[in-house]
Amino acid sequence: MPRVVITGTGIISALGGNTASFWRSLLAGTSGIREILGIDASQIRFKNGAEIRDYVPEEHFEAKDIALMERFSQLAVLAAREAVTDSGIEWTPDLRETTAVITGSCLGGRAAEESGYWELFHNGRTRVQPLTIPLSMSNAGTSHICMQFGIEGPAYTISTACASATHAIGQAFWMVRSGAAPMAIAGGSEAPFFLGGLKAWEAMRVISKDTCRPFSAERSGMVLGEGAAMLVLETLDAALARGARPIAEIVGFGMSADASHITQPLATGPMRAMRLAIRDAGLAPEQIGYINAHGTATEANDRIETAAIRCTFNDQADRLAVSSTKSMHGHALGAAGALEAVASVLTLKHGMIPPTANFLTADAACDLDVVPNHARAASVEACLSNSFAFGGLNAVLAFKAIP
Hints:
Peroxisomal Thiolase, Chain A, domain 1; alpha/beta; 2 domains
């Protein structure tokens, strides 16, 4: 089968408006978690989130386009623009006709729906904004990316809660590897900072009131984040033929379902997904040197993920570096897996492992090398990126360094 490589990445997040600033912040252990300012949070018990600050849509889009694009769609297009530029793609009619666009989003443009509900139920209006449906539909990010570049190939959106972007990237990888598409733009986008959504998360009682401390004994819950990340995938032969410089190779994808509980995770499902990704990659477990963990900083997730990693790798688990970058960019829900996929491939490219920030005290139930607080130089041959969603849906990507 053809080898598939990543030739471009694009990101906008609380850690910056491009891949370079995102990576610098990760290596510095800089947290993008701050007081929520984008909405009035006085009605919400938690006050912190990983928001994108100083974002002005008019600096990136024309007014006529903004009217048709909810925030999550705008972020998706901005990340795709950077990824395409980074990849150095020269569009031809054939490439536009066959390239795939696959994105993930958990919420889509639900803020637009909320605005309409507010007008109906609070202000007594009898109608909502006429564009509410195209603004709120979860596939809008995919559609706007296609329109931005004139892409006419296979295009769709996956919504599997916090595993959405990882499922999207994995499906894109399989499409390119199988020959169903010669190239793909894949990733995820999310914009969860609207009152109704935050109140729903508040009711779940899984949000920290201070910050995100994955694997730390003092962890008190997740912290929401927003953003988008996109990757350009193509075969190695095609990339080299056009003079592109691959960042890393994507070699495996595994997915599974817990089939147990809608919110409480099991170790067996994540374990199967990791094993399937390693098998799909044709790797030995000993070749994996780093895992970008799902690492939400909830009591259950970090404990269960630790158990799943130990069941997957056995004694080798003690030699693995495992970190959660959610400690810095927050939990971006459907976009989280894309942000973490970019962090993973940059780890392989630069030989630097980003830390688990905000770490205080080791927890005996999370007895892994979690790279606490400081980045670490390390030559890693291959790594995994884990995403485990409510509903018990698990997705894992495997990446390999390019010498």
